[in-house]
Amino acid sequence: MLLPNPSSGLPSRYTIQDGKLFEMQMIDSEGLRSWFVGNTIQSDGSLFLITPIDPVFMFIPILDIVRKKTKESEGRFMTVEGIFESDQYSSLRRLTDLAKVQTYLELVCEVRNASSTDKTFRLEDEKTMAWLRKKVEILISQFASIPVLVDSIAYTESLPENIRKEAIMQSALRLVTSYLSDHWATTLSAEYSFPELEKLESRTQLPSVADFGKRAGMEFEEDGKPVKDTKKPKLSVGQRKLAKASTAGMKPLSSFFAKK
């Protein structure tokens, strides 16, 4: 099913299995490659990878839109069905099939009504930020078991522990913000600072963080600092094809929730 990517807003493929949400990504097959399958040769060498994704990342941009927050109001409360109701983007309704969907919503929402059948939800900024910070903390605690993150700080192997700690935190932060819109990524990034890394960069000519990050498949600015809000996210093959297609008549994510 097609759902808006929580970071870019572009249509991306997801699936639900046993009440859990999975992201589907196709490995680029722009080169010449094929597969031997039994006694046949499959000329299309592309592969689809299916990986689990925390549904809350998907919920945040949707909840941000449907609450209709203004300067005068914190916005409206909505039922689970109302949050994912969209005549123009019918796949969103499938998110109600997730196991413990209300439990996920409660992690980042203010809730009204005690009855499970009458509960209404509204995104709450403070709870959302607390949840995002917790995600960063979890990645930091499990850092050594995630190869892509370990590779991203390879340049710090001979450096003092205080610098390595900042590098670990920075790398974990980047991974979390890669699943966020520009607004939430900027807001979360503002919660962290890396003074020792900045001092190191200002007085040495060490290889940039980007050199090691790119080897691990991560995105960095050339100066090793967090990716700016204006930097476009790396797109999958399917997203690049969509980007090249005509956008005439296409509507933004917010329009999917507009009233008739």
From TrEMBL:
Q: Name one GO biological process term.
A: RNA catabolic process
Residue ranges of domain Rnh202 triple barrel in the record: 3-54
InterPro entries per the UniProt record, alphabetical: RNase_H2_suB, RNase_H2_suB_wHTH, Rnh202_N
Keyword check for Calcium: no
Q: Per the record's keyword annotation, is Nucleus included, yes or no?
A: yes
In what residue span(s) does the Ribonuclease H2 subunit B wHTH domain sit?
Answer: 57-188
Predominant subcellular localization, coarse grouping? nucleus
The name under which this protein is listed is Ribonuclease H2 subunit B
What is the originating organism of this protein? Entomortierella parvispora
Source organism phylogeny: Eukaryota, Fungi, Fungi incertae sedis, Mucoromycota, Mortierellomycotina
